[in-house]
């Protein structure tokens, strides 16, 4: 009986081993399937990433091209506006050859000046204010004059008009600035 029991125990152990092997084989098969799915998903993600990368490169090229086209359109628009002004200057110069009335010529030049200033304003370019106190952010003092008529640091005269575009100074106004008599003596 003891041998029979031993045989039964051996058989039970064999069955347990086979069952464990079967479970391990099933687990290996499940892991293999998961690995295949994971590899397939990784391959899809890699392809998606490559497609997105290509689309992004295409997008950057398209945006660069659109910016360049917009810049070109802006230049063409400005050039067309200047062409009208040049045409009017040419007409004024042509009429100046035969004009006897200087006032008509002056009026024509004033009209062209108005047209040019309006053109600049229409494109966001404005003259810098040059009355009142000197502002080093908008004005460049090219000369100082001793004055009792003007307050210290007040603009006396404009040498060259300054311009700004959307708040940004394109060119500072060149001005003459008043200083009190005692400062002038200290400078010299």
From TrEMBL:
What PROSITE patterns does the record tag this protein with?
GRPE
Please name the InterPro entries in this protein's record. GrpE (IPR000740), GrpE_CC (IPR013805), GrpE_head (IPR009012)
Q: Does the keyword Coiled coil apply?
A: yes
Kindly list the GO CC terms recorded for this protein.
cytoplasm
GO MF entry, a single one: adenyl-nucleotide exchange factor activity
A Pfam match is: GrpE
According to the lineage, what is the superkingdom? Answer: Bacteria
Where is the protein found, in the record's own terms? Cytoplasm
| UniProt keyword annotations, A-Z | Chaperone, Coiled coil, Cytoplasm, Stress response
Q: Does the keyword Coiled coil apply?
A: yes
Q: Which residues form a coiled coil?
A: 3-73
> What's a single GO BP term from this record?
protein folding
Principal subcellular localization:
cytoplasm
Write out the function statement from the record: Participates actively in the response to hyperosmotic and heat shock by preventing the aggregation of stress-denatured proteins, in association with DnaK and GrpE. It is the nucleotide exchange factor for DnaK and may function as a thermosensor. Unfolded proteins bind initially to DnaJ; upon interaction with the DnaJ-bound protein, DnaK hydrolyzes its bound ATP, resulting in the formation of a stable complex. GrpE releases ADP from DnaK; ATP binding to DnaK triggers the release of the substrate protein, thus completing the reaction cycle.
Q: Please state which protein family the record places this protein in.
A: Belongs to the GrpE family.
User: Quaternary structure per UniProt?
Assistant: Homodimer.
The entry's protein name is Protein GrpE
């Amino acid at each position: 009986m003891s041998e029979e029991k031993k045989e039964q125990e051996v058989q039970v152990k064999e069955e347990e081993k086979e069952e464990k092997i079967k479970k391990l084989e099933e687990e290996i098969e499940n892991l293999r399937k998961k690995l295949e799915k994971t590899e397939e998903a990784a391959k899809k993600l890699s392809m998606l990433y490559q497609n997105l990368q290509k689309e992004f490169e295409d997008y950057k090229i398209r945006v660069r091209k659109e910016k360049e086209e917009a810049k070109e359109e802006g230049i063409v628009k400005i050039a067309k506006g200047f062409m009208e002004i040049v045409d009017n200057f040419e007409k004024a110069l042509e009429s100046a050859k035969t004009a006897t009335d200087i006032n008509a010529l002056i009026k024509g030049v004033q009209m062209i000046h108005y047209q040019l200033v309006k053109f600049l304003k229409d494109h966001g370019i404005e003259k810098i204010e040059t009355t009142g106190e000197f502002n080093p952010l908008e004005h460049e003092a090219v000369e100082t004059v001793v004055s009792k008529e003007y307050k210290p640091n007040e603009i006396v005269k404009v040498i060259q008009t300054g311009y700004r575009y959307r708040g940004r100074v394109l060119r500072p106004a060149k001005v003459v600035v008043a200083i009190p008599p005692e400062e002038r003596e200290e400078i010299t």
